[in-house]
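Lecture notes, continued. The same structure-token format from the folding unit now serves as the input rather than the output. Read the line below as a description of shape only.
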């Protein structure tokens, strides 16, 4: 398919596209235009936000509406998926920090996409599963650190549409979420092992995976990031969140520029705190803070010690910082048939309760298999959580924090 030229949109049309004036509550924070096609990645309607927007009170209203909805939603689905599922290895890290357990070389890893053909991928079944689990939003890995794009980006050949599958899985998921009224967010990795502007790709990724911002090519990489983010927001949205994962020394990404661009392009989209600027919410990974997160204390990774400076007691509503714990059901983010260390349904429910009691959100990951199926062990646990929420959901959704 060829991209259509951006059409002209009136201010009223832009507000309709962004869902201004639609109900917040626990329903999605935007409304889809009747008869429209906001998730067709090549449609003129979806591309309208390439044009400049007048930002002001309208943008602030959209942002507040989404944040209020997100704080009430409490429970979401994270999805880490890509060609790495063919090898049952973690996504990206086997080429960044090679370990004998993965049993794969960088050359083998980066060429997995040439065999990737998830013929059983049915995004509507993913949406159904998330709803059955009581999850109120989904976040999908559009590009992880390996640089492989799960969407049909115009700015790289290292993408899903050049695999045997050929279809744009992000467009398909966005369409399914649109039809199922399920808010969708996009995980996007600032690190990129494949792009020669991010690092000298003549070397192994394990030698320079932190990136090389002192090289003259670095501004070209930042421009590449901006082009792809605009693609996602304009051709696949609306997006409830852009979930960055900047790893270390995030100042090199000029986060202020990217957050400003996102605010201008899609005012109703939230941004997490992993691109070097505070963001809309904190992101503890694989753990739950023992105290309630507050403004001024940065939490963004796998180290629980980050939360040691949190004050005890109950913070004021003004001091409370929005936050979201991301967690896996086993020990791996991507599909790994060898990882059988599944958390029990009971433990996952207890984590959800713990998170909600401290005013946070819980986003629980699934890693689909090479055919596009979510494994039965994940499905059983998610549906079990959903059954519990049918009875006890009032104690989770829309709740605040407590002692």
């Amino acid at each position: 398919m060829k991209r259509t030229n951006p059409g002209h949109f009136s201010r009223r049309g832009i507000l309709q596209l962004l869902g201004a004036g639609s109900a917040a509550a626990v329903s999605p924070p935007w409304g889809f235009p009747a008869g429209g096609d906001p998730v067709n990645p090549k449609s003129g309607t979806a591309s309208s936000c390439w044009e400049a927007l007048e930002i002001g009170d309208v943008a602030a209203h959209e942002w507040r509406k989404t944040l209020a909805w997100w704080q009430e939603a409490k429970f979401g689905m994270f999805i880490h998926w890509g060609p790495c599922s063919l090898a049952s290895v973690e996504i990206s890290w086997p080429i960044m920090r090679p370990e004998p357990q993965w049993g794969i070389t960088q050359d083998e890893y980066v060429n997995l996409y040439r065999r990737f053909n998830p013929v059983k991928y049915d995004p509507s079944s993913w949406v159904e599963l998330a709803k059955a689990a009581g999850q109120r939003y989904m976040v999908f890995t559009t590009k992880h650190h390996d640089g492989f794009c799960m969407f049909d980006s115009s700015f790289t050949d290292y993408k899903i549409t050049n695999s045997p599958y050929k279809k744009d899985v992000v467009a398909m998921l966005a369409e399914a979420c649109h039809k199922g009224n399920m808010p969708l967010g996009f995980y996007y990795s600032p690190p990129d092992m494949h792009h020669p502007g991010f690092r000298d790709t003549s070397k192994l990724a394990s030698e320079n995976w932190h990136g090389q911002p002192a090289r003259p090519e670095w501004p070209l990489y930042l421009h590449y990031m901006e082009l792809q983010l605009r693609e996602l927001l304009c051709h696949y949205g609306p997006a409830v969140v852009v979930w960055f994962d900047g790893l270390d020394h995030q100042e090199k990404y000029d986060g202020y520029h990217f957050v400003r661009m996102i605010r201008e392009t899609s005012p109703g989209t939230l941004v997490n705190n992993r691109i070097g600027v505070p963001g809309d919410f904190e992101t503890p990974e694989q753990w739950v803070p023992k105290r309630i997160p507050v403004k001024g204390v940065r939490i963004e990774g796998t180290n629980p010690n980050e939360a040691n400076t949190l004050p005890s007691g109950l913070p004021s509503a003004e001091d409370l910082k929005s936050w979201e714990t991301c967690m896996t059901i086993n020990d791996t983010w991507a599909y790994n048939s060898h990882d059988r260390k599944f958390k029990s349904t009971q433990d996952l429910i207890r984590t959800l309760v713990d998170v909600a009691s401290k005013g946070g959100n819980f986003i629980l990951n699934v890693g689909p298999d090479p055919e596009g199926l979510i494994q039965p062990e994940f499905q059983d646990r998610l549906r079990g959580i959903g059954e519990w929420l049918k009875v006890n959901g009032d104690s989770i959704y829309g709740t605040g924090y407590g002692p």
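Point for the exam: The two ends are 55 Å apart (CA to CA).
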